[in-house]
Amino acid sequence: MKVLSVVLLLELLFCGIYATHQGYKLYEITPQTKEDVDFLHKFGEEKFDIWREGRTIGQPTDIMVAPEDQEYFENELTKHGLPYEIVVEDVETILQKEKLERGMTRSLQAGDITFSSYMFLEEHMAYLRRLANDYSDIVTVESIGQSYEGRDILLLKLSSGQNSANPKPAIFIDAGIHCREWIAPPVALYAIHQLVENASNAHLYENIDWYILPNWNVDGYEYTTTENRLWRKNRRLTEGAACYGTDLNRNFGYEWMFGGASDNPCAETFAGPEPFSEPEAQAFRDWFLANNEHIKLYLSFHSFGELLLYPWSYDYIVTDNTDELYELAVKAVTAIENASEMGSSYYVNSSAVGLYQAAGVTTDWVYAEAGVELSYIYELPNGDAPYWFMIPARQILPVVRETWAGIYAMWEYIEDRFVVQANSSPDLSFILRKDAN
Ligand SMILES: *[C@@H]1O[C@H](CO)[C@@H](O)[C@H](O)[C@H]1NC(C)=O
Ligand SMILES: *[C@@H]1O[C@H](CO)[C@@H](O)[C@H](O)[C@H]1NC(C)=O
Ligand SMILES: *[C@@H]1O[C@H](CO)[C@@H](O)[C@H](O)[C@H]1NC(C)=O
Ligand SMILES: [Zn+2]
């Protein structure tokens, strides 16, 4: 007993004294050649955390480095002839500051929603459950499975009623697969809020069903609110690994590990020991394959970068329907930019070109294996965030509002192509689509 309590006391002291990111530095490096870009990218496949990646020459890359790796890191840069600047001397100090500015209070009435501060995981879940209760004629909430730590992964379905002989076209939205990208769940929750609680939007689910998974990496999100704001992966320890977590957005089974993913469990882009090794990815896969047939549009929300991206991600090649993917993206981006109070300006291209090559991501898998030909990643704005994914709470509302304009524009297209056009000449559109393949 005595020994135990001494250990406990020491642990408490230890945690209190030693902050997680004390002494971590953030380096900024600006690549001058394509080779520099690739050289910097490689650090992400080791245990270095790339906060911001310059996708081309002249765009700065920011990399966080632990105290014990700083000498090695600086030597590597010097050997390569790349100058660097230390933009944050001690990451812990900015994390402490950020914690004060989040505005998370646990004072929200159960089931309420807010977009003026960030919310805790259980508040997200309570909101979904309240809607299922208050709008039981149109909303259902189901758990698609459990996370590694046993939390339910909740999916909201919005439908004005099924005709099982002829199910409606559907739109699928997810957010929060990378749990530190905190602006993503509010975007999905705002879409839910507008769809369900704003009667003027009832026409959006008249002919189209919606599936929205606002917080996918639930263990990770909980961990970002309680332990480590910078956590990105899930929370399962791979057998024999020295570090926790798999990047769920590298764990999907299409061209898994082809490139832009790591086999090092300590890397932020660790792809897992095998495709679909992670319970959160398995749950999504199983649900999706059972329901994919009528899903016409897939949107996955991440931050940051003001990018709207479509397959492929695993390689620098284009899909057969790249023109349609591009045109729909431009329609969404035009609506967002028009609605933006913060001057957002999106770049549109394939994921590999627009962001970086990354295999095992959801958008590629949904496109290739689940047959959803309109598949997108949104990299949301970072607003005035001094440090990328830590966008200030006061900018949640401007981001969710403008992004809703983009989702709305995409809905218009789905409604037009799969409801209006399909009803006016069903046979013709079937033939046309066959020819296009
Ligand atoms: C409800 O939706 C309508 C139409 O999309 C929009 O004009 C209005 O601002 C929304 N109301 C709220 C409170 O968001
Ligand atoms: C631009 O925004 C205005 C309202 O702010 C709206 O009336 C108009 O339809 C929008 N245009 C486009 C192309 O989205
Ligand atoms: C995407 O990027 C490639 C390579 O930079 C470029 O050639 C192409 O025009 C871009 N596509 C679009 C639709 O902008
Ligand atoms: Zn992400």
Number of helical elements: 13
Strand arrangement, largest sheet? 5-6-8-7-9-12-10-11
- Kindly state the number of beta strands: 12
Give the low-confidence spans: 1-18, 429-437
Strand content: 15-25%
Q: Which structural class fits the helix and strand makeup?
A: alpha/beta
Mean of all residue-level pLDDT scores: 92
Order of helices and strands: HEHEEHEHHEEEHEHHEEHEHHEHH
Q: Note the overall shape.
A: globular
Major sheet summary line: 8 strands, mixed
Write out the distinct hetero groups bound to the structure: 2-acetamido-2-deoxy-beta-D-glucopyranose, zinc ion
Distance between the termini: 70 Å
Please estimate the helix content.
Answer: 25-40%
Radius of gyration: 22 Å
Put the structure in a nutshell.
With 437 residues, the protein is an alpha/beta fold.
SSE diagram, text form:
Blueprint: H1 2-17, E1 25-29, H2 34-43, E2 49-52, E3 61-65, H3 70-80, E4 84-88, H4 91-101, H5 121-134, E5 139-146, E6 152-158, E7 170-175, H6 184-197, E8 209-213, H7 218-226, H8 279-291, E9 295-303, E10 307-310, H9 322-339, E11 347-350, H10 351-354, H11 362-368, E12 374-380, H12 396-424, H13 426-436
Helix pairs in contact: 6-12, 9-12, 12-13
